[in-house]
Amino acid sequence: MERRARVRFDGGFAMTIGGGAHRAARALPVINPATGQPFAEAPDARPDDLDAAVAAARGAFAAWAATPHGERARMVRELADAVEADADPLAALLTREQGKPIRDAAREVAGLVSWLRAAAGFAIPREVHEDSGTRYCETRRVPIGVVAAIAPWNYPLLLAAFKLGPALVTGNTVVMKPSPFTPLATLKLGEIARGILPPGVLNVVSGGDQLGPWLTAHRGIDKIAFTGSTATGRDVMRSAADGLKRLTLELGGNDPAIVMHDVDPAGLAKALFWASFGNSGQVCVASKRVYVHAGVHDAVRDALVEYAAGVTVGDGMDEATMLGPVNNRRQYDRLLDLWADCRASGLAFACGAEVPQRPGHFLNPAIIDNPPDTARIVQEEQFGPILPLLRFDDYDEAVARANASPFALGATVWAGDEEAGWALGERLRAGNVWVNECRPLSPLVPFAGHGQSGFGVENGLEGLLEYTLPRTMSRVRPIAASR
Ligand code: NAD
Question: Which atom of ligand 1 is least distant from the CA of 228?
Answer without folding.
Answer: 30
